[in-house]
Amino acid sequence: MSAHAKEKGMGLWRRATALTLLLLPLAFLLASGAFAAARKTGDGKVTKASGRCGSCHPDERVAFEKSRHAGEDMHCTSCHGGNDQSLDEAGAHQGNGWRGKITRAQDPAMCASCHADEKVMQPYDLPVDQYSQYQTSGHGKLLAKGDGKVAVCSDCHGAHDVLSAHDPASRTYVTNIPRTCGTCHGDTTLVRERKMKDTYHEYLGSVHAKSLFDKGNLKAPTCVSCHGVHGAAPSDIGNVNKVCGRCHTAERRYFKSGPHAAAMAAEQMAECSSCHGDHGIAPSETARLASSCVKCHDKGSKDEVLGATLLADYQSAAEAIEKAEKVVARADAVPIQTEDYKARIEEAHTYLFEALTAAHAVSPEAMSGYTTRARSVGEEIQEELGSKLQNITVEKLFLLVFWFYVIVTIGIIRRFRDAGPRAVK
Amino acid sequence: MSTLASETPARTRRDRAVDWIDARINLSELFSFLTHFGLIYTPVDTRRPLRDVLEQIRTTPLESYARWPHILGLLTALLFALEAVSGILLAFYYQPTALGAYDSTRSIVRDVMLGWLVHHVHMWGSWLLVAVVLVRMIRLFWDGLYQAPRELLWFSAVALAWLVIQLDFTGLLLPWDEQSYWSAVRGLEIVWALPIVGPMLSALVGGRTMSEDVLNRFYVLHIIVLPVLYLAFVYLTFATMRRVGLSRVGGVAPKLTTFRRHASDLVIITLLLFAGLVTLSTLMPFQFHGPADPYRTPKGTLPPWYMLAPYALFQLPLPRWIPGLALVGTAFTLPFLPAIVRAAGNRLDDKRLRMAGLAVFGLWLVLSVLGAFVDRR
Amino acid sequence: MADGAGRSDDQPGAEGGTDRRGFLKTLSGAFLSLWALGGAGAIAAYMRAPEHNESSNERVVRIGRLEDLRIGEARLVRHGVSPFFVIRTGAEHVIALSAVCTHVRCILAYDHERRGLICPCHDGRFDLNGNVVSGPPPRALPTYEVSTRAGEVFVRV
Question: N or C, which terminus of chain C has less Cβ within 10 Å?
């Protein structure tokens, strides 16, 4: 009875499985058919932005409809001309100033037809000088000479998928700019062909790139911060300090007050980059205070000695702070109250940074004000905390008194103990 | 009585005071209670008047356990008392929270007057206590003092050793500095790797990851649960000892002494112990490390020294349950050593057992040294 | 006849020795009672809670009386490694913001004329809301909540 029931159950189970297996491919077929149909009708449907263009240009339609332009009153026909309601190719590709594929040479002027128009751009609070800037740029000048390989609008902004520069997915978003420029300026074959520097990969190793990518500091400079956005051009000698000085204001001030500013202008030398490099700017390193002099000055000259003096001055101050930090660590291990000393060391670190900034004036006088202050803070802390650590020996002296007391007490107790009768046998 | 009183008036005054108290409260009960914890050795009849009880305590000879080697047992009680006093003082300032633990400990050592002394005495005391209970266990084993009728003494000695190690381990975490934190993490890794016992203990301790819950539970275990259990076993030790007497190794009977001499010895030993701890604390203070950082393991962090041997065992290329089973097995057989020896009958003589114990001890030493050099990041 | 050493079983000594023994006993008693005195003193010293001096762990920092701050004046409060400025901008309005530059942790300076904070290291500038005005600092300065109770200014760090 029970065996029969079991068999019956098994049979049912088997049948259900078979049915499922049979139905599965059918369901799959149906689903994929529906999918295909949906795709077809989707492309064929008339959308507001792209009309019927999507029937034949589905990829372009998808890209365009995600773009910033699609949400505005822009259509395929705004750039390409033609008739977006027609369903046959001949009808669509004619009339309304039909342009078809836009060539690279045409591209900037076509974008400018709107983007240089104050009336059109005003509601979006966008500048209208990009086109005129572009024409002054290295790219624009070469394009005018008939060089078809230089960057045009669509190379950086995209053709159909133009996004706002505030959109993190945009090619022109801050963190994406280096890669966007790098498509050409970091392309090894292109770089070799046109005898350019591979500035993209140089930049990737720089302290600026680290700050941008690793620390997420959106204020760190990208390519456009120094070279300009649409008017991209290398900085002229004499302007380098202005460009760098936009952020490094204090360094620029000291630099201009020092002897280097006039001398470099006279010799036609690039100002900041002569010591720091250009695209691959390394993190500031104090040793360069002395080591970079010999790039221009003779070895053993008084100028090199000056550099060594600056370095020695800085290092002695930094050392004093370092020693003070070690004393603080020792005091912390005891522990002794060190909050106040830590605050003072924090201040001394500020002096050290100021000293490095002042070093751009290349004069010991400008720097020594800060190094002296840092050094004196370091020495004071060493002295004060050192004497506090010494005070612990007082406790050791106290220990002697304590032991004297203990021994005398034991003596008294022993007297009391021996005053009683001896052990019972 | 009255004739005595006329000769020495001071004596009468004291007697009168004793009579005054005796008429109002039965202090004999207190003395009877004290006998359980070893201070008073003479059996006290609570129905007798206090003056008689005092006279009896004064005149009855007692076995001197303030002498080597019996002193080891006395030290486990005395050191515990010192730990209790300094521990209570520390508890006035300590806060068992993740935010407060480090700061309050540092504040005790740095800002509170004499706080450093209390803290360091407590830490050095714990160090000594661990050493004393382990040495005591070794000596009891070596002299065969687990044999009838001293099985309970052996049992409580093992229990005391186990409790002291637990006390030390739980106390170690409390400062919540990077060293104590990571040392405790390493130690807990061992506990959690034990089969059966590990999961049970991890439930008791508050989980498998180090957290504030674990800190709080460690704190409660450290200041209430474990000390109370410890006191219970101290009681068991003295209760058994008053019945079976001090050990007589090699047939030498322990010396008999008077209460006065014995009490003086106790005071002197306590004083020396305290002075020793103060000296250690002043000359070799404990270093203070930075606060615990769960995201950074300081280099060279090891579990506490008594856990180095199991730590090394777990680093062996074996499945974890093998060393785990060995450890749990050892832990469970140790208290039942007397029963095992008896069951084995004559096949195990003293000498062979001693050699076996020596071998185990040697293995433990070797493993501990190995554990100290295990390099793990 | 002070009986400092407590109960004693005096053996009847020589007549001359009694006086000296009594003196010794008094001395020992005095000596031993010093233990009690010292112990009590030590515990009393230990029990006295330490004054809460300004430590970086405190959440609420007392700045001082409001009238002691002049309008437009800033006070640098040294709060461990994270000092901050307390600036009275109006009769009733006091603000507090970090004095640590977000660039490389230099201590900022207050510039009354420019109504802002200036970093002496790299000339980074912040306005009084903590926003970066110019220079290398990547982020705005943290600002802290200020409350004035009974004429006294507190900052919640």
Answer: N
